[in-house]
């Protein structure tokens, strides 16, 4: 049996070496052919160069990997690219045919060879993830081998038997979009899970605000009401909080955390806004640090020619793809649409790179056998903001995420635990022309005409208006005394569907044709809540109890026929408020797992995930803490001091 195992291992290694040699030969031949002024392409000399590249790589790459692992962070990214170029420069310097001379020519040829190798490898794999999977498997086997104290192992470590929970968030994917894509056959991995009955899919309602930070505050910490929007103003400190800024995220997490988050017991947070009290935080915004030296998955991805360098080359190709798709929208006069230039040209390839890095980090943690992992993949959400949530380029990103789920499924046998996979989203998206496109002016400009001292803070089609001269939140009477035209002016605007303000009898929602008193549900005239769905009253009431909510809360109108909304930001696909599919998130989980909570709001999803962790034996049941999401007032500078930026925490 041992001889047979060794023979299979030798056969696999032989095929891998042969494939690498052929690819290297083709790469070098193309590179030398493309190099200006290079005479002679002798096959024997090129074969000798192939052997030299392999020898130099065998010597230098382990040393460079050690350096990359020791440095971590940004230095690992830089050295990861340099490593591929250095190997090729050294090999070309000692080329038997001496066809490239001079350092500038050597560096240029090496960079060209690295680019050609990345593109050729992608084409050989027919655009599949086979190479990525092979590299991830090698990483996982190395992690498990070192954990077992072995320098070399000829047989694959056995698959783990103890349960683990892997939670993958597909950012911004609405449940109706997911079901439509599955029925169309465009998501083969998720489609197979649902059709075979191993998993089931259900919708859950995000409530207000329908943003990633608010949802993750609930899912990871059970504390949604600490976050009234993607950004907001705090009157007690005079600070504008933006939840994707690391320093602000650190302050916010100090308010969220009670030490009992979703990932408390040895869990890992990857690519999230907040940590969920995880022991290990990788690319988590609130911890403001790149993975350190103990995150071998980061170093391995950066050092591998099939990792960061390949993703960088393909990312450049993604920029050209984006330029072509944006041009098609303009030529066809596709409406609604927004500009897709500027920062988005960098965001699109960056999100693709982040996806591959995150999956590599997940693979490493699966090999380590951590009990629970929560990872956010943002590709779809970024593209859908600018292209539209159901447009072809957005659906292509969703298909890529489905492929990544397939990659994780293929990597599962290498894991130190038997991981159960749960897939969920944090919110959906709603499409529509922007407020400025429809009415020729922004909401800020509308408000400034009605109240000059007001600050407008928007998140999608949700906006909060703060009267900054008042030190605390004020109600309708004070607002009308100082700015008698503000509430009536906003309500009369055709682009505004709801204006919510505190009155003597509690919060009241004003609409173009009526009023809805939220505490008792009394309606005068036409109910302004009807276009937004059956959860609207509860959503608004819950939002009014959030910390630092605006003096007025404004939500744009929704088209009853198309369900389109008008974002107060320049986004064709938006979320943050109400209307359309932005509050329709999805949850895919093993079909035989019980659902013990009504999934209304992120806090309910948090409790459900906790129940599943308890069911799997990964967590001891806590005492009932259903009131954890009540707002805790910030104490300004004192809370900011407590929430200082922390370094990466790794266990």
Write up this protein.
- The chain is α+β, with helices and mostly antiparallel strands and 651 residues long.
- The protein folds into three domains: 11-125, no CATH class; 129-143 and 160-429 and 582-618, Alkaline Phosphatase, subunit A (3-Layer(aba) Sandwich); 435-574, no CATH class.
- Helices cover 47% and strands 14% of the residues.
- The strands form four sheets. The protein has a seven-stranded mixed β-sheet, sandwiched between helices. The protein has a seven-stranded antiparallel β-sheet with strand order 10-11-16-12-13-14-15, sandwiched between helices.
- A hairpin with a 2-residue loop joins strand 12 and strand 13.
- Helix 11 packs across helix 12 (343-368).
- The chain crosses the membrane at residues 16-35, 47-67, 74-94, 106-124.
- Residues 627-651 are annotated as: Disordered.
- It comes from Actinoplanes lobatus.
- Keywords: Membrane, Transmembrane, Transmembrane helix.
Note the topology:
Layout: H1 2-34, H2 43-71, H3 73-93, H4 103-124, H5 130-147, E1 163-170, H6 175-183, H7 188-196, E2 199-205, H8 212-221, E3 231-234, E4 239-242, H9 246-256, E5 268-270, E6 280-282, H10 296-303, H11 308-332, H12 343-368, E7 372-377, H13 379-387, H14 392-411, E8 418-424, E9 430-431, H15 435-439, H16 443-450, E10 454-459, E11 462-467, H17 476-482, H18 486-492, E12 496-503, E13 506-510, E14 514-517, E15 523-525, H19 536-544, E16 552-556, E17 573-574, E18 584-590, H20 602-615, H21 637-642
Helix pairs in contact: 1-2, 1-4, 2-3, 2-10, 3-4, 3-10, 4-11, 5-10, 5-12, 8-20, 10-12, 11-12, 12-13, 12-14, 13-14
């Amino acid at each position: 049996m041992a001889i047979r195992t060794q023979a299979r291992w030798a056969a696999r290694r032989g095929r891998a070496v042969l494939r690498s040699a052929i690819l290297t030969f083709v790469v070098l031949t193309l590179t030398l052919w493309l190099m200006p002024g290079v005479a002679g392409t002798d096959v024997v000399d090129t074969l000798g160069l192939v052997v030299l590249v392999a020898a130099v790589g065998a010597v230098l790459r382990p040393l460079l990997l050690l350096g990359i692992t020791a440095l971590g962070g940004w230095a690992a990214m830089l050295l990861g690219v340099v490593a591929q170029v250095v190997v090729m420069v050294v090999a070309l310097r000692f080329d038997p045919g001496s066809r490239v001379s001079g350092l500038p020519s050597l560096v240029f040829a090496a960079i060209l060879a690295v680019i050609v190798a990345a593109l050729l490898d992608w084409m050989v794999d027919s655009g599949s993830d086979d190479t990525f999977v092979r590299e991830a498997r090698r990483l996982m086997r190395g992690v498990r081998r070192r954990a077992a104290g072995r320098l070399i192992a000829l047989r694959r470590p056995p698959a783990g038997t103890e349960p683990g929970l892997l939670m993958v968030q597909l950012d911004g994917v609405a449940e109706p979009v997911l079901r439509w894509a599955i029925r169309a056959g465009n998501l083969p991995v998720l489609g197979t899970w649902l059709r075979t009955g191993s998993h089931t899919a259900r919708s859950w309602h995000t409530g207000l605000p329908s943003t990633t930070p608010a949802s993750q505050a609930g899912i990871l910490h059970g504390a949604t009401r600490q976050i009234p929007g993607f950004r907001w103003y705090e009157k007690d400190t005079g600070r504008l909080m933006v939840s994707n800024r690391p320093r602000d995220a650190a302050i916010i997490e100090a308010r969220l955390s009670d030490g009992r988050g979703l990932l408390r017991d040895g869990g890992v947070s990857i690519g999230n806004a907040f940590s969920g009290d995880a022991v290990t935080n990788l690319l988590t915004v609130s911890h403001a640090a790149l993975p350190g030296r103990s995150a071998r998955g980061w170093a391995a991805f950066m050092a591998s020619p099939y990792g960061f360098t390949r993703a960088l080359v393909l990312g450049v190709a993604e920029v050209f793809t984006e330029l072509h798709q944006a041009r098609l929208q303009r030529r066809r006069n596709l409406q609604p649409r927004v500009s897709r230039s500027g920062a988005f040209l960098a965001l699109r390839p960056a999100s693709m790179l982040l996806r591959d890095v995150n999956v590599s980090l997940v693979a490493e943690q699966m090999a380590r056998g951590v009990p629970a992992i929560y990872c956010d993949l943002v590709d779809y959400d970024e593209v859908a903001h600018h292209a539209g949530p159901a447009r072809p380029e957005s659906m292509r990103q969703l298909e890529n995420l489905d492929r990544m789920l397939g990659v994780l499924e293929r990597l599962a046998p290498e894991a130190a635990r038997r991981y159960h996979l749960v897939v969920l989203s944090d919110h959906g998206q709603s499409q529509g022309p922007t407020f400025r496109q429809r009415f020729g002016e922004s909401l800020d400009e509308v408000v400034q005409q009605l109240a000059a001292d007001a600050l407008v803070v928007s998140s999608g089609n949700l906006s909060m208006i703060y009267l900054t001269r008042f030190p605390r939140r004020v109600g309708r009477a004070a607002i009308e005394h100082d700015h008698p035209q503000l509430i009536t002016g906003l309500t009369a605007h055709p682009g505004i569907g709801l204006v919510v303000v505190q009155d003597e009898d509690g919060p009241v929602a004003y609409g173009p044709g009526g009023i809805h008193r939220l505490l008792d549900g009394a309606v005068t005239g036409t109910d302004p809540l009807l276009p937004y769905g059956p959860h609207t009253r509860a959503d608004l009431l819950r939002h009014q109890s959030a910390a630092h909510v605006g003096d007025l809360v404004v939500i744009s109108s929704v088209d009853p026929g198309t369900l389109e909304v008008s974002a107060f930001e320049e986004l064709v696909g938006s979320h943050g408020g109400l209307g359309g599919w932005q509050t329709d998130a999805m949850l895919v989980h093993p079909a035989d797992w019980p659902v013990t909570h009504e999934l209304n709001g992120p806090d309910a999803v948090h409790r459900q995930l906790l129940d599943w962790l308890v069911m799997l034996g990964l967590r001891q049941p806590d005492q009932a803490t259903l009131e954890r999401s009540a707002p805790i007032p910030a104490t300004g500078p004192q809370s900011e001091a407590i929430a200082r930026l922390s370094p990466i925490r790794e266990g």
